[in-house]
Each structure stands twice: as structure tokens, then as C-alpha cells.
Amino acid sequence: MDSITQAALGATVAGAIAGKRCNAKVLLVGALLGTLPDLDVFLDYGDAVNNTIKHRGFSHSLFVLPPLALLISWLYCRFRPDPFWSFKRVSFVTLSVLITHTLLDAMTTYGTQLLWPLDGYFELRNVFIIDPLYTLPLLLAIGVACFAKQHGGRWCQAVVLISTLYLGWGYTAQQVVAKRVEANLAAQAIPSERVLITPTPFNTVLWRIVVMDDGKYWEGLASLFDQDSHIEFVNRPLSVWPLEEEPTTLMGLRAFSHGYLNYREESGMLIVSDLRLGMANNLSFEFAFAERDEVGEWALLESTQRYPGERGFEHLNTLWERLKGDQEIDANLQRVERTL
């Protein structure tokens, strides 16, 4: 999730555990701990692909966070002893904030290396990386807790429960859409071996579906407010890696994306796209891997580069109309391709 949400979650979790001892200091410490795992974004792994796929790595690992929590707690108790905030209480708060951070990240589509240094990216894809309906209650609880004194902890406890229920709602909505997708793929004779279902920006009502096929992939939208269960799928060309040599960065990107990759040539550059995040023709993660040399042959770049996209908010209204169940928009899906 975004940094504001993670800080808000950390503060609210800390306030919920503190209970009657909840105050501005507890909330601030919780917010700082909530942002700690994401400080790995300042590490440079050498190129654009590695900076992307190694984010949410060691700093989000369930093998690393518990000993880190114990170390932070020991240091705090060593230099700031407090009869109430014993090592046991401090370590419980610290571990809770750090673990809820990485578990929330694992519910987005980006992917989180929960078991680093073991290989594997985990994601449930039941919530978008920015969702106001999840974040705003957390911010409200923090605001109330700053002034409610003894009742602040209760507000935090209530909102932590509400936010958890919202994540459960996202998973339930995803499963409802999944059953509808399964029926549509069978009815339309589209292969169903590799199907991706993920929320569109800022909500858990409108869902994007990507289906991989031989030589093409299918893309569609499904809203929980649709009156008709039919899903309009648009097929798009799916290319393969054109070079004999396969760099290790490509292997890493393939693992990160679970194979949801596409390849194209644009302006003499070989572009590799992660199909999971964004919309067709305007995807969030695109990388330049090679360029044409003087004789027209592909030459791998010394280091991969982010390929710039043009994402904006001007078409969010179209997605909003589609969210409300206007399936006529699906006949012209290109209208929303330039959305986040």
C-alpha cells in the first residue's frame, strides 16, 4: 500500500494496543514503525528492474521482521525505560505494526517476498494499492485519538476491526467476480488456466480481468453493480522474448510478474511490460531491455530502464461510470486504457 496508508495503519495498530495509554506519542511512534519496511525504496540495486522486483524483499520478510522488532524494542527499553512500557509490551506493539505492514502489502497486486530469502512473491490482489475507503477510517481514528485522550485507544481498536473487515470484503468481492469470470470463460470458449483478477484504482467494486492465451491475452472489466453477468473481453496480441539470450533481470521480472509479461518494439527499443498493473497500452511497470544497433540487430542494454508512460486522472470518470454498471463502456475499452 501507499506510504500514507502504512503510516496510518501503524499508528492505529499502536493506538489500539496501547488502549487507555494511547496518546500522540504512541501514534507517532506507530506511524514511524509503519513506514520503516518501505525505506528499502532508497536502496539502489543497480537497474530499474532490480529496484522494482527487490522492493518488498528482505525488509518485508516474516523471517527478518520478528528479530528486527526485538532489537528495536530492546534498544527502546534500554534507553527509555518505562514501568508500563515493558520489553514485552513494546515488542508486541513493534512486531504487530511491522507484521501488519507486510501482510497488508501482500494483499495488493504488487507482490511481497514474505519468506525472503526464500524465493517467491505473494499477493492476494484483493485491494488496490491506494484505496480511500480503507485509509480514511484510519486517518479519522488517528485524528480522534489525538484529542479523545482515554477513549482514543477504543477508536483505534474499532477502526482496526473495520479496516480488517474491509479487507475481508475485498476478498469476498474478488471471489464473487471469480465465479462470474469462470462462467464467462467457459461460455466464450476462452482458456481459463491463467486468469488474473485484480481491483481497478481506488475501489473493490470494479475488477479487471486478464486471461493469458496462446499468442494473445484477453482483458475485461466486471462490476459488482452489473445488471448483466456477461463480460466483454477484448483480445490483444501477446508476443514472446525475441532474443536467444535471456538476461537474469528478465528471469527475475518473470518471477515477479508470475509470467504475466508482454513484449513489443517501440522507437527502436525492446519493451517488456508487466500486464498485472494498469490498463492495456498504459501499464505501470514497463522496462526497456534492448535497442536496435546500426545493422538492425538487438543489443541488450547495460542496465534496464523504466519506460515512461503517460498516466493521468482525466479518464477516472469513465471508470467511475463503468463501476456503476455501465457495460456499454466495454465496447470501447480503449477509452479507459490510459487510466492509472
TrEMBL record:
Domain of life: Bacteria
One Pfam family matching this protein: YdjM
Keyword line: Hydrolase, Membrane, Transmembrane, Transmembrane helix
Membrane-spanning parts: 58-77, 89-107, 127-148, 155-172
Signal peptide: none
Record's keyword annotation contains Nuclease: no
Gene Ontology MF, one: hydrolase activity
PANTHER family the UniProt entry points to: HYPOTHETICAL MEMBRANE SPANNING PROTEIN, MEMBRANE-BOUND METAL-DEPENDENT HYDROLASE
Protein name: Metal-dependent hydrolase
Organism: Vibrio agarivorans
